[in-house]
């Protein structure tokens, strides 16, 4: 599984140093973590110095940990990587050391300033190529090129053009460039939540999630597939990657699904679709929730509340389809004696949920994301200490010790690298957008192409977001899609939060949409299935993700905007019934096989139920009720006929 992760996910293709090299990375990682904690707790470091120092650590660790290519040896540290790491760190430390002089010069940059800026940007591009991948690097390069050649372009793309000095210094020193909002978020609460996630992983919460989901759904028809859906939803609350989520839980669930009787392509698709949905599941959403809050200037809890109903609908759609497939194939669940008992398991290991409960509680109380993350980290450490004391009291080896704490810090420092580099590259895109005004022009261009027709604009935005999101990690995905495409939706007068969520959803769903579909390929590799067939199956399972964003754009009540508690309950009930209708239409089975006409009616009724309008809800619910009654009546008639014979 480790080799599969290395091949599919660049974030896992890191060096595992031995001997003296290991101590270097450990020392740098621990210093990085202590610096971040000090900066957050003290508040004594100014924003620009914090962000520059954060990037200095990131650049140094990037070249110490990640080789130049996939084929490069993982057990050596070439001299040129040491040089690149030190140079990358030095470029950002140049800002820290000369901060006062740079501020006093007020935009009057010297030749050395320009050289450092160009070098820093080029080294950042190389670290992006190694760790995050080519898509965002190519997009950022195109934006920089656009800043130079815009004067030669026609129509809405035209601008006066900028010099190398202006572009480099704007991107490197300005808080509208690389050191902008994305890196600001990354260097504060995103780092804290990644540290929290690393601590949570060390407690063994992943296995606890699998066990608890097995106890709930493992014995039901098609149990392992349902376990995959539930586990991925839970792991998505702390995981930052669709691929790692697929491999992590899929290594257990996919073989079980195949053993039970599911086809390989379907088994891989279930895990891929569910794991991708984990990035849409609050409270963390692959760190995108924090960036969205910063970008829109909204409280973090507002983003979390907005994401709840769409995420529930997404997973419900997959769960129902899995259930229907199991009944259609006549698949049973796992033997109950092989499954853990819910109550004894919860009583024994339920304390592992405490950190998540702490975070959600403080967020609901209106505390900041930073405060909630720190309380979550403290609760994780307390749990580690208590379990270790209990182990010692019983004569066992402590579960959580000093070496484990070092591992957590190293893991957090390593995991933040890809996020920080993605945020820095997104800062380049945002910097060029602010410099040239291309963001508004791009939105205006999409509106012009669609002649201002909302549905066509949304469709073009969907296609753009899927293309831009292919192969990009979650944070980069959101930053790219929201910066480039969300403006077109906002330009039509739609709710900004709905526009950002729309772009984010379709950027994320690129992980299972052919031809790239990294999560589907990971699922196919474990299932030993055909990748593209698995990707198409995953896309079918995730149909809700292609429909729900259109609904919440046209009616933001689904995002809990301008609605009441009763309104939210009504939306949830009708939308869940609507997802059932969609699932039946896709699967061709409800309580028995359905005809082509019935499938069309189920799909149409499902769409009516998902649209949050009273008249459409009544019609949709009525049609689904009649269709279900018709199926049950036919089953009863057939049973009576069979009994009579």
Automatic annotation (TrEMBL):
The chain crosses the membrane at residues 20-39, 45-66, 78-95, 107-125, 132-153, 178-200, 266-292, 298-324, 345-363, 369-394, 415-440, 446-468, 475-494, 500-527, 534-553, 559-584. It comes from the Bacteria. Pfam families: DctM. Residues 120-563 form the TRAP C4-dicarboxylate transport system permease DctM subunit domain. Keywords: Membrane, Transmembrane, Transmembrane helix. InterPro entries: DctM (IPR010656), TRAP_DctM-Dct_fused (IPR011853). PANTHER family: BLL3936 PROTEIN (PTHR43849:SF2). This is TRAP transporter permease.
